Amino acid sequence: MESRNNRHVGNRYSGPRKPKEDNLEMIFGLRPIIEAMLAGKVLEKVFLQKTARNPTVDELLDLAKKADVPVATVPVEKLNKLTRKNHQGAVAFISAITYSPLEEIVTSIFEKGKNPLLLILDRVTDVRNFGSIARNAECLGVDAIVIPSRGGAQINADAIKTSAGALHLVPVCREPNLKDTVDYLKNSGIQIVACTEKTDQNLIDNKVDMVGPTAIVMGSEEDGISPEYLKRADARLRIPLMGQIGSLNVSVATGIILYEAMSQRLREENAAS
User: Fold this and answer.
1) At a CB cut-off of 8 Å and minimum separation 6, what does 53 contact?
2) Measured on CA atoms in the order 201, 255, 196, 121, is the torsion positive or negative?
3) What is the per-residue pLDDT for 273?
């Protein structure tokens, strides 16, 4: 397992209004949002009025698609709640972090002769859970966190605070299609390990080797990992529970399985030295 100082690849990242759901810097108006994307600003999400359709809207949608920025079409009432100013049918939020390209990260890790440890989050929606998971990931050697463009937690000030700043240290990759992403990782020689209750394979049995290139998948708070990702997993692991409650908080479960992966890698490193 590589040292704490050199295990990350890619960049380290280092008012505004406070809408109820975002705590992110807001921009509004079709042209200001377009100019922000053209200037390289990373947008967390765009809200577009349902009835809006003209060449400027088409330009905005095209740019958002190229940048993998989620766009939600909403009633004008939603936009009016976000701002009382002349929004022209479009409101966007600037991301609190800069997202990293997954392929570049994976390539860089392999070129350095290291085994990637990636964390894939399937529809983890609670902001504080996400922040806690990011903190676990940074402390336990994760090279990058992979999230979907849609259906995941908003990375806002609350998430960054809960992460204790880890979201400025661990690269986050926002992927438009997690299914394609999982297939890409498998084709790159990275095993997919699903942490799920839907298996008899116990984590403490130590039968799954996570020293090699590994991506661990954690599921949503509501219904766990999607079936399409479960069937693609090379291994499924269950965390044994002794109490009457049938499941753990996803951030706690993430910490447990990442600790097991780190322990295996440390044992391998110590045995080789």
Assistant:
1) none
2) negative
3) 79
Classify domain 102-272 at the CATH class level: alpha beta
Domain 26-94 shares a fold with domain 102-272: no
At residue 76, the 3 state secondary structure works out as: helix
Rounded CA-CA distance 223/174 in Å is 21
DSSP letter for each residue of 1-57: ---TTT---S---------TTT-S-EEESHHHHHHHHHTTPPEEEEEEETT--SHHH
**In whole angstroms, what is the distance from residue 159 CA to residue 80 CA?**
25
Categorize the per-residue pLDDT at 15 as very low, low, confident or very high, splitting at 50, 70 and 90. Answer: very low
Question: Residues 200-205: what's their mean pLDDT?
Answer: 91
Q: Which tokens in the block code for residue 196?
A: 């799920």
Instruction: Tell me how far the alpha carbon of residue 42 is from its chain's centroid.
Output: 15
pTM exceeds 0.70: yes
Average pLDDT over residues 197-220: 93
Helices (H), ranges, 140-249: 157-162, 178-187, 227-230
Q: Which two tokens stand for residue 139?
A: 């402390």
In sequence order, the β-bridge partners of residue 148 are 175
| Domain residue extents for the chain | 26-94, 102-272
| CATH code of domain 26-94 | 3.30.1330.30
Extract the tokens encoding 214: 């590994």
How far from 57 is each of 47, 64, 149, 247, CA to CA, in Å?
Answer: 12, 10, 20, 45
Element (H or E) spanning 272, and its range? helix 250-272
